[in-house]
Amino acid sequence: MEIVKTKVAIIGSGPAGLLLGQLLYKAGIDHVIVEQRSADYVSSRIRAGILEQVSVDLLTEAGVDENLKAHGLPHSGIEILTQGQKHRLDLAALTGGKQVTVYGQTEVTKDLMHAREQAGLSSYYEAHNVQIDDFYTQPKVTFQYQNQPYQIECDFIAGCDGFHGVCRASVPEDKIKTFEKVYPFGWLGVLADVPPVADELIYVQSERGFALCSMRSETRSRYYLQVPLTDHVDNWSDEQFWDELKNRLDPESREKLITGPSIEKSIAPLRSFVTEPMRFGKLFLAGDAAHIVPPTGAKGLNLAASDIAYLSSALIQYYLDGSEQGINEYSEKCLQRVWKAERFSWWMTHLLHRFETESEFDHKIKQAELSYILGSLAGQTTLAENYVGLPYEIKHLSEFQQAS
Ligand code: APR
Ligand code: PHB
Residues in domain FAD-binding (predicted)? Predict the structure, then answer.
């Protein structure tokens, strides 16, 4: 058996694990990443594409912002289409100048993987039968890599292995509580090399259900339709998709919409999920391993990033200053922000989707709520400040280095 000793073993090479690795590397903290899939698989997954300013700042601090700055599209507003009328929310004016950046999570992952390769950092891709043990005492990670058994001995394990990962599943049942809400519909997403229908994202609330017009670049669009959970992607030809999208749009957008062959098409279920706490002895959960939001608020990747901001800061504080304060506060600090993002994502989902079970009264109340939000400065502000991302305080690497 190969024995590897390191300070932090990161399980999972999604955005959460990769970003943590990069921030630890910048701070000179020894770590490895263990990932069950291949590097090619990880870097080609199609995911969401909106970064909060705080996430952009964190990627900048990690030194992986070159492509992001060159190709990311800053957006200072979004449109909400309801009852056939588009309403623009001027995010920047409503939040004192904040904006979001359109940049695919796939690109974020590729940039982080590239930075890791350049720095010659160690990752075990295609690791099989990954198991974690003894995380309340002397943490260990075991797995098979290139047909060899491996054991990692470490100070801490970062469980960045997504919703279906092994880390959360390894916590004794009496030490963990989970909260879940599953929605009775999914999102059918299409990626196509056609120019976006508008310069800004359009969130569509219609009698036929929710739709979203998003983009990846000036020549690549990402569109979504609310569909029943029982639906199957094979039931949707490209033509049917475009027709249904047109049906949910306003006449002007319908006219402008440029259609083309899909390069990816898939249905994703919508779920809200939170794990409490997020730390178990020397095991930390971060990102999708700890929580899931429905994508309506564009918060999934951003929440993973804020967990990693807290976790990297806590580990840097521990190794550079010898203080356990950040480690002890990790779970509580993350969860405060997580629950607020859960609330916002649930609320946006509730407000913009058609629920089969809702009564006519419920539906009217929802229309009134949306109309109130869009017609009131206070209402617009509450949506905008959540959408651009609630602020959070963390101690940055430069502050630790100044202190020591
Ligand atoms: N051992 C090793 N790796 C594992 C295991 C395991 N047992 N189980 C899962 N993994 C890997 C997955 O293959 C995946 O590459 O962990 C990684 C988790 O990555 P993500 O699912 O992308 O999760 P995270 O890094 O938290 O990113 C959060 O992804 O799903 C979106 O909305 C979400 O945008 C958010 C972001
Ligand atoms: C996307 O571009 O994939 C996207 C954008 C905004 C969302 C969800 C997904 O709220």
Answer: 5-345
Q: How far apart are CA 80 and CA 370, in angstroms?
A: 10
Residue 15 in contact with ligand 1 by CB distance below 6 A: yes
Full residue range of the structural domain in which residue 327 is found: 2-74+103-180+272-358
Q: Using a 6 Å cutoff on CB, does residue 158 contact ligand 1?
A: no
Listing from the earlier edge strand, what are the strands of the sheet with 50-52? Answer: 50-52, 100-102, 73-75
Domain assignment present for residue 253? The answer is no
Annotated active-site residue 203? The verdict is yes
> Which residue type does 284 have?
F
Collapse the DSSP code of 266 into the 3-class scheme (helix H, G, I; strand E, B; otherwise coil) and give the result: strand
How many domains are contained in the chain? 1
Cα atoms in the 13 Å half-sphere on the side-chain side of 288: 19
Rounded to 5 degrees, what are φ and ψ at 270? -110, 135
Tell me how crowded residue 30 is: count the other CB atoms within 10 A of its CB: 15
With a CB cutoff of 8 Å and minimum separation 6, the contacts of 22 are: 62, 63, 64, 112, 115, 116
Is residue 101 in contact with ligand 2, taking CB distance under 6 Å?
A: no
pLDDT tens per residue, range 45-98: 878 889 999 999 999 999 999 999 999 999 999 999 999 999 999 999 999 999
Residue 305 Cα to chain centre, angstroms: 8
139: number of CA atoms within 13 Å, CB side?
26
Maximum CA pair distance of the chain? Answer: 65
Residue 260 lies in a domain: no
In a domain, 330, yes or no: yes
The token duo for 19 is 């970003």
CATH number (domain holding residue 42): 3.50.50.60
Q: How far is Cα 55 from Cα 75, in angstroms, rounded to an integer? A: 14
CA end-to-end distance (rounded Å), the chain: 39
- Mapping DSSP to helix (H, G, I), strand (E, B) and coil, where does residue 118 land? helix
Count how many Cα atoms sit within 13 Å of the Cα of residue 378 in the half-sphere of its side chain. 2
- pLDDT tens profile 155-167: 999 999 999 999 9
Which atom of ligand 2 is nearest the CA belonging to 297? 10
Task: Report which residue type is found at 164.
Answer: H
**Residue with CA closest to ligand 2 atom 6:** 298
* pTM, to two decimals: 0.96
Residue 62 lies in a domain: yes
Number of residues assigned to the chain = 404
Q: Measuring from atom 34 of ligand 1, which residue has the nearest CA?
A: 301
